[in-house]
Amino acid sequence: MGALGFTFPLVLSALVLLPVIWWLLRLIPPRPQTELFPPLRILLRLVKREEAPAKSPWWLTALRLALTALVILALARPVLNPQSELASGDGPLLIMIDNDWAAAPDWEARIRTAEALLRQASDQNRPVALAATVAGPATSVQLADAAAIEQTLGALQPISGRADRALALDRLLTAADTAEDAPVLALIDTGLAEAADEAIAGSLAGAELSGLIRFSEPDRPLAAITGADNRTDGFALDLIRTESGPAEPSVALYDSRERLLGRAQATFEDGAARTTVLFDIPFELRNDIAAARIDGQTHSAATRLLDENNRRRRVALLTGLAGEEAQPLLSPLYYISRALDPFADLIEPRTGDLSVDVPEMIDQGPAMIVMADIGVLPASAEARLDEWLQAGGTLVRFAGPRLAASAADDPYLPVTLRAGERELGGALSWSEPQSVAAFPPDSPFAGLDAPRDVTVNRQLLAQPDADLAERTWASLEDGTPLVTGARRGDGAIVLFHVTAEATWSNLPISGTFVDMLRRITDFARNTAPGADVAPRTGEADAALPPLRTLRADGTLIVPPAHVRPYDPEAAASAVSFENPAGLYGTAEGFIARNVLAREETFAPFEPAAPGLSIAEQTLVAEEQTDLSGLLFLIAFLLLIADTLAVLWINGRLSFGKAPRRGAPRTAATAALLALVAGGAATMTTMPAAFAQDTQPGDEAILDALETTRIAYVLTGDDGVDETSRAGLDGLTRFLASRTAFEPGTPMALDIETDELSFYPLIYFPISTAGELPSEAAIARLDSYMQNGGTILFDTRDQLTGSLSAGTTPETTRLREILDGLNVPPLEPVPTDHVLTKTFYILDAFPGRYAGSPLWVEASDLAEGRSDRPVRTGDGVSPIMITGNDLAAAWALDEGGRPLFPIASGDPLQRIYAFRTGVNIMMYMLTGNYKADQVHVPALLERLGQ
């Protein structure tokens, strides 16, 4: 039980009057009697006798004495747990109170201490000024009476911010400038040092103080989290503690719904102030971690909020190769996806159209975009890619034939490349494959062991310039770059000078490849809102609104009114009154701001006061309680009891007597009526509703899917379009008469709007009469080629080109179209190509003219072996180019008669032109099946046949 004291002890001298009061109250007048009226009985009792006053009952006397004593004690104002004088002196009292995150565990003790100071200042009639160390920039501090300051103190709450004691002290000293007497400064601090405390010494040195009192709690048992890392070997938290902090605190991880994901025990070595705790939890759960907390610590520094920077990076994958590869081990993205999948969230393209896929992927805020052998991007995709790079994205590119063909004009390369590539046995070649040299010390790959079993047979060469050395992250033993990188805005561009699959080098199938991609991913950052960059809102420097703020006790709450949007430009600033710890952004993406930085430790606060002694005191442990109100209440109740007793003694009250006959009896009657509807409710019969499965245009889609058709592009030239229709119709009839394939009626396509993916082959006659296809149309053609379709470009200019011996308008128009496509290296159809053997045996591919070769995608593999009937390769060429005007040779009228003469006059040329069309269609439908026929005898032998 606490101590008891009296504010006005002289009032207790009135207790000596209690005996006098007892003597005055011991007698009461005689009790009057009530009799019935019978007159005779009254007359008989009219006998005079002596009457003495009745004595007061002992219990009534004791009650009245107790009432009097309670009133005297209440007037003396008894106080439970009275505090001694905390701040002596006559000048103004200046109170500076820490209300930062560290004040939360003992906030009530700090409020009690401040209230005790205010009570004593009120009793002494001293003016008071109060300043909190976490307050808004416009906070006003003035001298006032204690009652007004007490209202301010009642509204004060701890904030998840950092204390600015120097600013609070300056406000107090400014408020005390108008006082005549020297003020007394009372510091109610947390005992922990802050970065701005160095300025306090100068302020105290220039202040005229009559005293300095400090209220604090020594040896506070605090522990806090300073950092979180989603490492490859687990999820790690960095912890610090004070000297008296817990030696083995328990730490828990929670998701956004406060569900427990993991718990671990941290261990501080003897005397150590810092440690790291590692959670061994699956990668899938690490992305769900929203917060980490130290059990038993009721302050916001023991809670660590997480955002996208603590999650696995999001990586988008793009390739310029057709999406339909028969062998996945030859896919450019196979090894990349296998290397990144354990520690990154992979985004795959949705449509294959770069003008659509690139913006969609960027909208998802990836940390890194990987492009495998993409040479040309649509202009709209380039604009979004520029914004993404400037915002902090990391673009990783891999070499390949397409990139080699467009390297001279590619703006997304870290270094300038030479045209073509260097390969073993070719120009600028090595005598033997090259190995990887040791990684430079300033490279992101520093510390990794150079793989001795990795060799490079082919690479893209960089132009030697002044910046090449500092942009080289990895090189070969001959000094040529293997990996280069450069900054682009806040982002970076990285180039692997070899392919992403094992055709140019065996690096992608090595363990070092995984480590290199992981290093690049580690320094990449997600660019969606919620990363350490501002979300794109139309303004580069848009502020992030507060989503949830962290209360000083470590719980997330709705942001109070004083919280302002967070400016990403002030990322280095500490948490404050206007921007406390919490989540800033939107529900789709946010930034987590925490109390402590990774490198911080706990240090004691030591205020320097030259020439001024500091009186050290502890916080007020128990609250002072005024008992006078309670005593007055008890005295009032005793007064009521006394009044009732007097009435009862005088007969004014009767208890236990029967009521008069006929008196009404009252009884509280309550009736509860429940209405229950019985029977089954009548159901309203509704007509059956069915989902509308069919949509406009579905019939055409189903027809295109059921019947294979050859399509041709509408050029805007009516003559050319009619020739294309008649030619493909003639080829369709020839295919139906000579093969088992019966295609449908040819389809005319508007490449600006029509769906292209239904058709295995699109015939594209080049005409200069129409408009050049738009960028969107060219992007759709590029997507069609990447997803396995083939476009047969026919310039129809073999005759005019051979006569003029120069570039024709049709060839110029074709080059303008190809500039927007990811065109692989091309070559005339070799004699051992599968196109020469798919149905007919051909050595040329004539049309109306016979002089132009048929160009197809060049094979990157070696020449075919003697034991194989055709050149090795996989898939179908996405592009074919000829100038022989194939459609004119195929064009027939309704009677089957040719519409156009053959230029050479040889009727066999038309037959070979039809055979060319048959071989092309069979190649489109069956691919390189002829190359696999060599395995049939071996398969039959293994099957025992």
Task: Give a brief description.
By secondary structure, this protein is of the alpha/beta class. The chain contains 24 helices and 37 strands. It has 6 domains: 4-80 and 631-649, no CATH class; 93-216 and 605-623, von Willebrand factor, type A domain (Rossmann fold, 3-Layer(aba) Sandwich); 223-309, Sandwich (Immunoglobulin-like); 314-523, Rossmann fold; 546-585, no CATH class; 704-934, 3-Layer(aba) Sandwich (Rossmann fold), CATH 3.40.50.
Question: What this model shows, in words?
Answer:
- Strand 7 and strand 8 form a beta hairpin.
- The protein is elongated.
- The chain has 6 domains: 4-80 and 631-649, no CATH class; 93-216 and 605-623, von Willebrand factor, type A domain (Rossmann fold); 223-309, Immunoglobulin-like (Sandwich), CATH 2.60.40; 314-523, Class I glutamine amidotransferase (GATase) domain (Rossmann fold, 3-Layer(aba) Sandwich), CATH 3.40.50.880; 546-585, no CATH class; 704-934, Rossmann fold, CATH 3.40.50.
- It is of the alpha/beta class and 945 residues long.
- Helix 1 packs antiparallel against helix 3 (58-75) and helix 3 runs antiparallel to helix 15 (628-649).
- It is built from 24 helices and 37 strands.
- Strands 15-14-16-17-24-23-22 form a 7-stranded mixed beta sheet. Strands 4-3-5-6-29 form a 5-stranded parallel beta sheet, sandwiched between helices. It has a 5-stranded parallel beta sheet with strand order 32-31-33-34-37, sandwiched between helices.
